[in-house]
Amino acid sequence: MTRIYFNDVVMRDGLQIEANFVPTDDKVKLVDELSECGFAKIEVTSFTSPKAIPMLRDAEEVMGRIKRVPGVEYTVLVPNLRGAERAFESKADEFNLVMSTSETHNLANLRMGREKSFAGLAEVIKYVDGRTPINVSLSTCFGCPMEGEVPQAVVEKFAQRFADLGVRGLTICDTTGMANPEQVKKMSDELQKRFPNLQLTLHFHNTRGMGLANVLAAVQSGIVRFDGSLGGLGGCPYAPGASGNISSEDAIHMLDAMGYDTGMNIPKLLQLAKELPRIVGHEVPGQVAKAGSTYTLHPEPSYVDELRRAQ
Amino acid sequence: MTRIYFNDVVMRDGLQIEANFVPTDDKVKLVDELSECGFAKIEVTSFTSPKAIPMLRDAEEVMGRIKRVPGVEYTVLVPNLRGAERAFESKADEFNLVMSTSETHNLANLRMGREKSFAGLAEVIKYVDGRTPINVSLSTCFGCPMEGEVPQAVVEKFAQRFADLGVRGLTICDTTGMANPEQVKKMSDELQKRFPNLQLTLHFHNTRGMGLANVLAAVQSGIVRFDGSLGGLGGCPYAPGASGNISSEDAIHMLDAMGYDTGMNIPKLLQLAKELPRIVGHEVPGQVAKAGSTYTLHPEPSYVDELRRAQ
What we know:
Chains A, B: Keywords: Lyase, Metal-binding. 2 copies of one chain form a homodimer. Chain A has helices at 10-14, 24-37, 59-65, 81-89, 103-110, 114-128, 152-164, 181-194, 211-221, 248-257, 266-280, 288-291, 302-310; strands at residues 5-8, 41-46, 73-77, 94-100, 134-139, 169-173, 199-203, 225-228.
């Protein structure tokens, strides 16, 4: 049975666009519960400026108070050298660096060009110097909402440059849900061939409903690592009302039903996903938490037994 | 380029559980607009008792007033002999008969056992006597919400019995969204092998988020006919708040992006899907109508050009 590894990004990617601050106590509790569900990795927070993302201003406190479960990696987003220092102090298991493969998206999102981003991240990687494993999340790999197509060759070029700097893993992100399964297959096939020693993670959004179809295309190609967000939390700033990140539990439920070993406690995961709307104060897109798993049977209407006996 | 054929079921499967009556004028207009979008088939209405499904009490009038576009098949649900008579009068291009492969679901839904259903439908098929092509939709082929597993052998048995009666097509329905892609692949492979001369259609629900992943698994297996519902209208009575039918436009958008020939006018289809919430009075689950197609680009923020020039 193929083992699949899930990284839940609800604490960072999911929470960061929420309007109302989620109290630190709730965050710590949520991370601890995610740990108990069996995630291979949890992106706990981001060491960005508290002014840039006030939701994550309690990064140090959250990292200091969570229970570290053996076998679970606690990763944090590190935007720059100052973030790396803070991440070291927090004893994060992995640093996740981010830049975009689209020049326009990088300018819009990080307010600098790609080369400046690359140089800054290269400096962080040099500073870390192998003391903590590094993952780089490449945004807009399947298309940019402003530029349109991002050629696969551009993604491969940035992947190669980071591989040359000795990173442990790369996350190939479909930041605004533009990927289709055919494109995912081509990208996954090629990157696995070129980087057999890198941990490759795929990060999909369900903005146009293709999230789980893309997961399917990726596992068919041999990918075993995925990002997901509890409840599918994390919207898309370019499309109000549209879904954002794929729901961890929906993806895990599908792969489990298909016979993959996700290493997850699915009933516990669904229970946790059900609690999320209360924590964030609104409905979330995840489906399985609403419908129940396929193993959840429903009682038959009372007239059925009567009809059955009358036959 | 492989041609894919979509049957939109919003008028029947989508509308029948809506609380508020959709006026006949709106229905006629909606069917005519669906015709213009390029659907291969449209399930227009049902010739059930007006008391059982008041929403579709205007079946005759709708069938009489719609514009018949050459190349589009107008199919109707026919539950029994009386329905078949009415369907003949309405000059429907195809009669769609329905029964369930799960005994409990058939009792719950049609208030009779499977054998009684089969006998009744066999009588309809005999009465029609080849004058109009017949399709049979088999419900709960991938699982019953009350019984759980429905063995594939049971589905194959009913498929065989209807094939023996000379039907033109079979629709294999995942009535409550229990199918997973692995199961879809097995079912699709086997049914195509056993019934090479039958029109096989797959009908998926997105109740647990797997709808488009199942479409992907089915096209990979060689299936070229699908049911979908505009906007994803048509909920699941067993899971309030959960999605029902897959959204036609989301599925078509995905297959088009993958390089399949859907024969559809996608901008027109998305425009129509956007109008649906106004017609039914509530939001619908379809994603692409909200997010725009992957080809819809967004303007860059005003500061991006300044940053670009300052580099």
